[in-house]
Design brief:
By secondary structure, this protein is an alpha+beta fold. The protein has two domains: 7-41; 56-164, Bit1. It is 48% helix and 18% strand. The protein has six helices and four strands. It has a four-stranded mixed β-sheet, sandwiched between helices. Helix 3 (70-91) packs across helix 4.
């Protein structure tokens, strides 16, 4: 009887195969997961604001002094929403998850000037709320580099109200 047909060889081969398969399973199951994958799988570590049950929103502030047409405003708000989403995905994925859980609410408000926009960005930074200012390429209605829209959030409504509560809806 040769070594290949012996019972001891089959036992060692079987144990080795099972050990290899089990090792691969545990390595793949418990490997390091980047933040984006943690967000996708719905795992949470902790909340970044005091009340996780507070409604989360994204505020879009449109400069009213530029007198942009409706289509232009829509495009600029779209750019701001995507920029806010990308920034939140990179910097605060748990906040993004809560915002999406609450329906991804977006509220558009009027801003009277560029100075007011910059002041809102300063207040947002002071309260550790994400903000993104959109600059236009200048190919249609406004000059190149003009700041058109600011996205503030996503963040809890109670925090956003302290920054943008005085602004009127667009």
């Amino acid at each position: 009887m040769g070594i290949i047909a012996s019972n001891s060889y089959l036992a060692v081969f079987s144990v080795g195969t099972l050990f290899g398969a089990a090792s691969a399973y545990f390595v793949l199951r418990f490997r390091y997961k980047p933040k984006e994958e943690i967000w996708k799988n719905g795992m949470e570590e902790r909340f970044e604001f005091l009340d996780p049950k507070d409604e989360y929103r994204l505020i879009l502030g449109v400069r009213n002094d530029l007198k942009m047409q409706k289509g232009k405003v829509g495009a600029q708000c779209g750019h701001a929403s995507v920029a806010a989403y990308a920034k939140a995905l990179k910097e605060k994925p748990r906040i993004l998850r809560h915002w999406l859980k609450f329906g991804g609410t977006k509220i558009t408000v009027r801003i009277d000037s560029e100075d007011e926009m910059l002041e809102l960005a300063r207040q947002a930074k002071e309260k550790d709320v994400l903000s993104s200012i959109i600059r236009d390429a200048g190919q249609t209605q406004v000059a190149p580099g003009t700041r058109t829209v600011i996205a503030i959030g996503p963040a809890p409504k109670s925090v956003l109200d302290t920054i943008t509560g005085h602004l009127k809806l667009y």
